[in-house]
Amino acid sequence: ETSVTLYGIIDTGIGYQQLKGSDGYKATRFGVINGVQSGSRWGMKGSEDLGNGLHAVFQLESGFDSSTGNSAQGGRLFGRQATVGLAGDSWGELDLGRQTNIASKYLGGVIDPFGNGFAQANLGESFTSANTLRYDNMILYQTPNFSGFQFGLGYAFNASGNQAWKISGQNDKNNRAITTGLRYANGPISAALTYDRFDNDSIDGGAVNEWNIGAAYDFEVVKVSLGFGQTRNGLFQTQGAGFNNADSGSADYGVGSDAMVKLDGLKVNSYLVGLSAPIGNGKILASWQMADPGSSYTGDLKKQQAYSLGYTYNLSKRTNLYAIGSYATHQYFSDNLKSTAIGVGVRHMF
Amino acid sequence: ETSVTLYGIIDTGIGYQQLKGSDGYKATRFGVINGVQSGSRWGMKGSEDLGNGLHAVFQLESGFDSSTGNSAQGGRLFGRQATVGLAGDSWGELDLGRQTNIASKYLGGVIDPFGNGFAQANLGESFTSANTLRYDNMILYQTPNFSGFQFGLGYAFNASGNQAWKISGQNDKNNRAITTGLRYANGPISAALTYDRFDNDSIDGGAVNEWNIGAAYDFEVVKVSLGFGQTRNGLFQTQGAGFNNADSGSADYGVGSDAMVKLDGLKVNSYLVGLSAPIGNGKILASWQMADPGSSYTGDLKKQQAYSLGYTYNLSKRTNLYAIGSYATHQYFSDNLKSTAIGVGVRHMF
Amino acid sequence: ETSVTLYGIIDTGIGYQQLKGSDGYKATRFGVINGVQSGSRWGMKGSEDLGNGLHAVFQLESGFDSSTGNSAQGGRLFGRQATVGLAGDSWGELDLGRQTNIASKYLGGVIDPFGNGFAQANLGESFTSANTLRYDNMILYQTPNFSGFQFGLGYAFNASGNQAWKISGQNDKNNRAITTGLRYANGPISAALTYDRFDNDSIDGGAVNEWNIGAAYDFEVVKVSLGFGQTRNGLFQTQGAGFNNADSGSADYGVGSDAMVKLDGLKVNSYLVGLSAPIGNGKILASWQMADPGSSYTGDLKKQQAYSLGYTYNLSKRTNLYAIGSYATHQYFSDNLKSTAIGVGVRHMF
After folding, report:
1. Mean pLDDT computed over every residue of chain A
2. Residues of chain B with a CB closer than 8 angstroms to some CB in chain C
3. Are A223 and A251 within 8 A, CB to CB?
């Protein structure tokens, strides 16, 4: 019995990006892109049989930028995941440590034809709690699969960084986060419902929260998905424009720049329509998304929309090529910002 | 023949910590704790047979915080160990690079029921040279086991960081450190004697040094251990209060904050009484420790004492659960600081 | 079929270094040295057969300082290499990501008896484009071996760091680099020709460029090599004095301190004569190098020369010992700086 599996993904390509703003502002970038379909990573994982249907499980996953070799996730060694847990055949699994939230685990697999990947094309552009969001210091429980249903509930004692001391008479500086959700998969039907909430006493404003719902039907020729969500009092992890992924620490949000940001009164409605169609050895992927802040917060925020089209082609079980094009209007809800991203790449899994 | 073994430990739990000071100061922390029994780590090691009883050996060990995925040891990649060496059946082993000192290798295994682990409960709370202290740039020689005896001697050209240039007419900025010791183990009896010394010409004050002696007897129902040591002119690696381990770069010492600190004239006597008792699939662990600065340095320093009780329960050979409680008075030798730490966790080895 | 190979090198020793300057300036350093023969590293690599003579290949390589455990290459996780590529039996190989340039791949193997290693002794002391120089964001194509010939061509969209946005009306901040070369090996004869060029619009001065040519003949008793090169308008990656390797981020160049530096008008001619002779289980290595700035740039720059002698002794296929001595005059082209480096070490490969 081997006690550890070494694995990874390297995803690198060539891409062109363009940002167009007001007053003739135009920024372009042409060069090597990385982690577009799947964030480049290496990791170790394992499972030990403890008897009586009980297993000890662990996963350590390290993200990196395959164009420069730098660590991703702000330089963390195991920035993608660092968990140890116990799993029981009858009662489910309990994991402790840094890991993605329930929305990122459950929603994308149902509604996003791009499967939480492809940068600006991924559902995280509009559904910020499902944007491969990770919480530190999280205890996460998930049930086993019951007739296609699975439920998960997690609590992060501090979602970002080491646990802070709470000093008498002062505010608690920890980002307390709750994540929960339900997913269903049976034959051609799949569906998910998620809810996330975080608060930080030392920052003014109400608790930021988001709920999302989505469903998909696989007609075999084509799979169709629909998603809707609502975010209040702020945003979770925002997606950078084009191939600029917030997850790599390069977010630059018009209305804030943090992984989680309180914006009291902001209310964003998010929509997604997705299509995917298998074609020979590959798959065509397409989605339309919108994040609509209405007139909440300030009246200057505009409806952000993204139109994305992709194609993946399998060279083997572990290697595929891809092409992606995505166009977003009112990126970052800003009045004039248009973001275009076009790229091709190769993804290799080991 | 495999040339490399990939291995690791993940140790994560839930804990409560409290610091109480003067004037109603109270700080608490409840959440995910990590590396309490054993620092979370992954590593690579190997041994190559060179013939004639000679082996080439290496070990690269990387520490991390399993609650956030960050690197430990101040962000070093292989912060726990980075050595290559030669080992001979007849003459012993010579290792070059970053590694723990002799006190950390020899003393804890004899006197500390908590085995150099369990944060505030570990012997490093009082015996700072045995607090899993690591020296950079060390050449370390250890004899083979002779009738139960083993001797070790190491010299660090610069104990912390890259070798500094010595410029004519200026002080030498390198932390020169010597570590040596003897240990004995035979049947129920074990004993250890260690000595460490470091100096830095560019800092005023005498050389910091510490010697420690300890012994244990295993009555099978219970193992009893006693330790005594004396530190002069400063401190080696100080232990953070509660689950706050200096080794993770989070030390906050009342009388200094560095890994090694010169405090000219300080003289601390350290004491430890330990007990451990196997119970079924587990073990009960207990110790009392005291670090007594007497009236040396300034008269304001108080006797730091720590009372600790723990329990480990083996789920398998590679996975165990644990519970720990520790209470310290005059933490950091300060007049009023009381530190309480209570936690449970799981440790998985791969 | 295994999908990943875990490998590495640890190279650690003991050495003495001395820098002597004007006005009695003298700096010395004695202690643990690391990565002298080969930079200490660990990595993962693999190749997947895609059928029809096509392979997917990847390599992730992480450099570290084996005396302290710190990451090398300025703290990058995979600072030595991070590539994914496709290789075809008939057409060659295409690799994307961070990797060494063609000069570092082709020239050292031909002309440098020290094989791109041994710090100050390596050809990078004089031929800065061949100094194990790495480019980020590079697309690199290499032909298969045709009757002993191989050709390579690479383009780095930004040679150092993430792709920068090009904003209309502003300079392009990316370091655009081209690397190309040809090598030949057949029986006792080997030869190489390389060319590198980089430019950065936002820095004044012409494009920095270097071409190098070299050849060697293996008489079996001794192998003799000759190299010549010319660098214009700046320098590529400069070598630190003694065991202080620029590659570890510790360069301190008299006329600049960056990995690539523009110095408009500078013209350096580089020369190398190398000898290596197998002796029993080992090999003797020797070279003389000179980098001559003539009267270009400023008249104060002097001819830097380095005389180096080394010896390697194989304990096994994976482990060897080495000794090295190198003496350089006018180090960093400075009027008076003499650099001496003497060391012994062990290199273990896994």
Report:
1. 92
2. 3-4, 6, 44, 46, 48, 50-51, 54, 56, 58, 60, 62, 73, 75-86, 96-98, 136-139, 157-158, 161-168, 174
3. no
Taking CB atoms and an 8 Å cutoff, what residues of chain A touch B25? 167-168
With an 8 Å Cβ cutoff, are A166 and B348 in contact?
no
How far is residue A106's CA from residue B229's CA, in Å, rounded to a whole number?
Answer: 56
How confident is the model over A211-224, as pLDDT tens digits? 999 999 999 999 99
d(CA B244, CA A163): 10
pLDDT of B241 reads 79
Chain B neighbours (≥3 Cβ pairs under 8 A) are A, C
Per-residue pLDDT, C204: 85
Chain A: partners with 3+ C-beta pairs within 8 Å: B, C
Check residue A21 and give left, alpha or beta (phi > 0: left; psi -120 to 50: alpha). beta
Is the reported ipTM for this assembly greater than 0.90? yes
Nearest to B346 among A44, A77, A84 (CB): A84
- Tokens in use for A339? 């973001």
Per mean pLDDT, which range of A126-140, A215-229, B286-300, C79-93 is the poorest? B286-300
Q: Which residues pair with A173 in a beta bridge?
A: none
Contact assignment for B56 to C25 by CB distance below 8 Å? no
Strands (E), chain A: 5-20, 26-34, 41-51, 54-63, 81-88, 92-100, 134-142, 149-156, 166-167, 176-186, 189-199, 208-218, 223-235, 261-279, 282-292, 304-314, 319-329, 338-349
pLDDT of residue C2: 72
Residue range A268-324, pLDDT digits in tens: 999 999 999 999 999 999 999 999 999 888 778 999 999 999 999 999 999 999 999
Look at B96 and C6 and tell me if their CB atoms are within 8 Å. Answer: no
Q: Cα–Cα–Cα angle for B210, B213, B217, nearest 5°?
A: 155
Look at residue C57 and tell me if it is in a domain. Answer: no
Q: Is B339 part of any domain?
A: yes
d(CA C250, CA C245) in angstroms, rounded, equals: 6
Kindly state whether residue C249 falls inside one of the protein's structural domains: yes
b/e map A302-319, b = 16+ CB within 10 Å: bebbbebbbbbeebeebb
Reply yes or no on whether the pLDDT at C247 is more than 90.
no
Between chain B and chain C, the number of residue pairs with CB atoms below 8 A apart is 132
Q: Which residues of chain B have pLDDT under 70?
A: 1, 244-259
Neighbouring C-beta atoms of residue C24, cutoff 10 Å? 8
Contact A136 B7 (CB under 8 A): no
For the stretch A150-176, pLDDT in tens is 999 999 999 988 888 999 999 999 999
Question: What's the confidence (pLDDT) of residue C1?
Answer: 55
Please, what's the largest Cα pairwise distance for chain B?
Answer: 68
Q: Please identify which residue in the block is written with the tokens 């040279």.
A: B129
* Residues of the domain holding C301: 96-349
The CATH number linked to B206 is: 2.40.160.10
The reported pLDDT for the residue numbered C244 is 63
Task: Flag if C350 and B4 touch (Cβ within 8 Å).
Answer: yes
- Is residue A215 a contact partner of residue A207, using CB atoms and an 8 Å limit? no
Question: How are beta strands B166-167 and B149-156 bridged, if at all?
Answer: unpaired
Question: Does B47 reside within a domain?
Answer: no
Considering only CA atoms, which of B38, B68, B73 is closest in space to residue C69?
B73
Q: Read off the DSSP letter of residue B253.
A: B
Q: How many domains does chain C contain in total?
A: 1
